[in-house]
Amino acid sequence: MTFMQTKTENKDNLPCKTQIGNSLPAEHENIPALDGLRAVAVTGVILGHINEAWLPGGFMGVDVFFVLSGFLIASIIHKDLHQNTFSFRQFYQRRIQRLLPNAALAVLVTLVFIWLIGFQRMETLSARHAAWTLLNFSNIFAYQNLGDYWGIGAENSPFTHFWSLGIEEQFYFLFPLGIFLLYKIFYRYSGVKLALIFFGVLGVLSFLLGFWQSFRNPVPAFYLPPFRFWELFVGVVLALFIQPFIPKRSAQGKSLIKTVFALLGLAVLSVVYFFYDDMFPFPGWIAAVPVIASGLVILSVTTGKSIVSRLLSFRPIVQIGKYSYSLYLWHWPAIILAKFSLPFEDLEINVLIGAVAGIILSILAYYFVERPLRIRSGTGNVGKRRYVTTALLFSLAMGASFATMEKYESRKVAEELAIKGMKEKLEFAPIRYSGELYELRDGARAEPVVLEGKRKNVFWATGTGKRVNDVQFLRFIGPLPKTSLAHSVIEKNFGAPDALRVMLVGDSHAQMYGLSIEEIAVSRKLNVRFDTRTGTRLFELKKRTRAIAENIAVWKPDILIFAERWDLYRPHLLKRKLSELMQEIQPHVSTVLLVAQVPVCEYGQNENLRERINLLSIKEDSTTPKMLQDKKEGIRRKNLAILEEITQTFPVSSLIRADRFFTRPDGSVLYAEGGNFYYQDNNHLAMDGVNLVRPLFEDAIDKFIEPKKKTSAQGEEEFAGDQSPAEKAGLKSRTP
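Below the sequence we write its predicted C-alpha cells.
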C-alpha cells in the first residue's frame, strides 16, 4: 500500500498494486504474476466471506497480502535508498493519494446506507468504527469493541475487514524509518545485510509472541501489530535476500527450484483455503503455512519464468489482481448491508446479492476514483484536483462519521421515548438478562450479592453495540465467591460438604442459564460450580479443554451440564471432540446433561431486536411478525443429531431439548409470546426465555436426586435397626 515513486512506469502510467494495492519498483513493475497472486488472495477472502463452507481458510488471503506488502515496500525503499532518491514526504504523500480516496468513498457510502436503513445501534457503532478506520486504527477498534474475528460482533460489522489495512498502515509508519536509519548508518550493501538480519530477528520474535498469545489470548494475537508484523517481515527479508548483491545460482538449477517452489506454494495455499480446520488457534503456527507458501510463489515469479508464473499471468487473473484493493474495500460492507436490509427469507441469497453488488461497486470505484487518483506525477491543475478530491472525500467520510455519532447522541431522549412507546405498543415486559453474573473470561468474576436486604439490579451495557438499552443487565458488586484461580471457576456451596454437586460448563449459552441453575441449587441445597466464558468454546483451545477435564476429574460432579453455541462447530469435529471428552470424563460423573442450542434469529445481534420487530410489525400489521432462523440452521440440525447420537453412545448422558420451546412448526423462531419477549439478542435467551426451559433442568436434576434420597433413607433404616433405643433417640454415649 505504498506510493513510492520510481523512474520506470508501465504503459498506463500506473503502478502495479500490492495487497490491497502497492506500487512496484521498476524491476518488478512488469511482473503480471504478482497481480495474479493478489487475485488468488482476494478471491479467497471474498469467497470465504460469502460462504465459509466454500473456503474455510479463505480468510488467509489476508496473510498472502501481508507478505506481498512487506516484499514490495522493502523492494521499493531499497531501490530508492540505493539511488539516493528516497523521500519521506513523497512516500507518505503518495500513499495517501493512492489509498485514501477509494477507502474514504467506501466508508462514506456505507455510512449513508446505514443511515437510510435506520438501525440505530448499527449506526453509532459503525460511525465510531469508521472514524478509527479513516485514521488507520481499525484493528485497534476491532480489538476493543468487536472481539473475536469469528464472533458475531465482527461478523456483523461493515468495517471489520479494515483491520488488515490498519496493520499495514502501522507497519508503513514504522518500517521506513527503521530501514532508512540502517542504510544511512551502515551505508548501502552493509546496510542491506544488516537490515536482512535485523528484520529477520524481529520477524522471529514477532512470530513467537503471536504463537504464544494465540493460546493465551487469541483476540489481541489476531488484531494487534506486534503479533502480526512477522508476516510482513517475511516479505521484507525475501525482498532484501533476492537483491542483486546476493550471489545467484546457476540458471539451470534455479529454473528447476523456481518451478518446484511455485508449484509447492500454490498447492499449499489451495490446501489451507479448502481444508483449514478451525480447531487450530489462529494466527498461531498455522498462519506460517500460507505465509511461507506465498513467499515461495513470490520468490519464483520475481526471479524468472515458470509454469506458475505463466498461469498467474493469465489476463483475466491479472485483471482481478488489479481490482484487488477496490474489491477488498467494497465487498464486505455490501454483504453486511444486504444481509440486514434485503427482504429475501433465505439469508444466503441476501449475502450473494450483496457480494455481487460489492463487486460492481468496486469496479466502478476502481475506474472512476482509484485509477485516476493514483497516477504518480501530477502538476498544475491536475495535481491540485487530485489533492482536493482526496481531501474532500476524506472530509466527507469523517464528517459523516461524526454526524452519525452526533445524530445518535442528540436523539437519546427521543430514542428512549420510542423504546417506551414500542414497549407499550407491543405490550412486552422489560427484557432481563443475567449472563454477566457468570462471566469468567480473562479472570473476570462477579458474584450476586444482597445489599441492604435486597438484590440490586444494575443497568449495564458492554459498549460493543451488541447490547441494547431496553435490556436490564443484572450485575452485582460484593464479595467474590470461592474460586479456583488455577482454572477460574465460581463455586457456590448451598448444601453440606457431601451434598450433590452440579457443574455448568460452556460459553455465553451456558451463562444465560446460570441464574436459573443457581436458584435450583439453592432450593434443593446443592453445591454448584460455574465454568463459563463468553466467546470461548469448549473445544476452541486444547488448554481450555484440558482445564475443564481436570476440573471435572477433581471435583467429580454428580450432575454435569454442557451448554454451548454448538453451531460454531463443524459437525464431524463436534462428534469427534465431544466423544473424546465424554470418554475421558464419564468415570468421574454420574450424569451429563447436554443442552440443545436454541434457534438463532436472522436479525437482532448488532441492532436492537425489538426495534427490528417494531419495524416489521408495522409492515406486516402483526405484533409478532415471522422471524426466520439464520443461515446456520442446517448446521444446528446436524449437530443436534450428533448430540442425540452421543446420548445413545454414552448412557450417562441425556439431552435437554431447549430448542423445542422456541421453534415454530414452520421452522421460524418463537421469539415472543403474549407479554414475554424470550430473546435478549438474536441467539441468547432473556430471563423469560430461560424460565421456559427451567422445568427441564428441574426435572432432570430431581430424577437424579430422588433415587439418592431413597437409597439414603433405606440405609438409615437399616442402620437404625442395629442401634440401641438411646441411639435411635439421638443420644450419644459418653463412654470414650
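Residues 358 and 536 are 32 Å apart (CA to CA).
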